[in-house]
Specification:
Number of helices: 15
Radius of gyration: 20 Å
Number of strands: 0
Order of helices and strands: HHHHHHHHHHHHHHH
Mean pLDDT: 88
CATH class: Mainly Alpha
CATH architecture: Up-down Bundle
Structural class: mainly alpha
Oligomer: single chain
Distance between the termini: 29 Å
Length: 375
Amino acid sequence: MKRITAISFINYFNSGALTLIIPLLLLAKNANVAEIGIVVSAMPLVFLFARLLFAAIADNIGWSQIFLLANWPSTTFATLIYLFSNSVLGFAAGKIVEGLRDSSYWAVNRTAVFALSPNRREHEMTKINGVTWLATAVGSAAAGAGITYVGFSSTLGILTLVSATVGIPALLLWKIWKMPSKPDISLRGFFSRLSPKGKNKDFWVVSVALMFYSFAVYPLITLLLPVFMSKQLGYSYLTIGFWFLVYNLLAAAITFLTVKLQLSLKRSILQSLIGFTVAAFLANSGMLFPALLCALAFVRGYSIAYFEHSVAKVAKNSSNISVDIGWLHVPMRLAEFSSVLASGFFVQMVGYAPVFAATGVAFVVYSFMTLKILK
């Protein structure tokens, strides 16, 4: 598990840094929020298709080599593309490669955790989410400090070097790789693994629940909050980095502290009330924005166990686990693509308040759908 944890940390240090850097760099290049939304939305669209491809390969020949052959190069090359980009199209190309990074990671990460910790899969995967938020916190803080003191280009150059280190734990995982006993390397066998046929009702209910999670989280984190903090609140790069650090550290801490708590109706009501209230008042929060951001972080860490327990419940007996988990996430990634793309245009038309409130509604739906699945 230590190698998986190391890969997770490096991936999300990179992700946390780029999540902050790219919108702010595009703002510095005079892009508007709609244009930034177009760039950012390229990533989940690539993720949608590439994850299933990587998952099918992993279920056929094994999961560990995906980290070395796909995740390592894409993590490094995405940062290099941003370093030399001067146009919206160039940044979109970077997001496409970032999509390959995230899809190669998530195509096999849960599979790896389920294989290495079969009796504690839900708890270990919830902990991995905590690690990713901790890494995101450190990455976003480093990005804020970096672009403040040494500028965008130098920060991206340093990030490229850090990203390359994911090859070390990936290579160590390669050494424990074992080829499945009877891999089917035919095209027919490969495409048969990609089929969504035979999934039961609970499987698709979980998939829809994850879609609402996507509506609730990704427009805020990957686009709206960095732009809102810069344009509406006038925060400096260093201040934005600091508050993203606080947000992710708090989410990680709450994840670890609540990992063993019961998933109950009372818990769902609490997180729903906080999540919706925060989203409804976020746009007009003024000096209270930091407090509401911390409340949002609490809710994200407090609620992630519902996500992982739901996935584990419907995927635990699968013989094609990487692909099945990939299909679970298809509506979620379609929702991420469409909501990130649309939210930029909606903000320009109607302002931040309705868009923020809509994410709160989506979170309430997610909370009660997952509770029903787990009861």
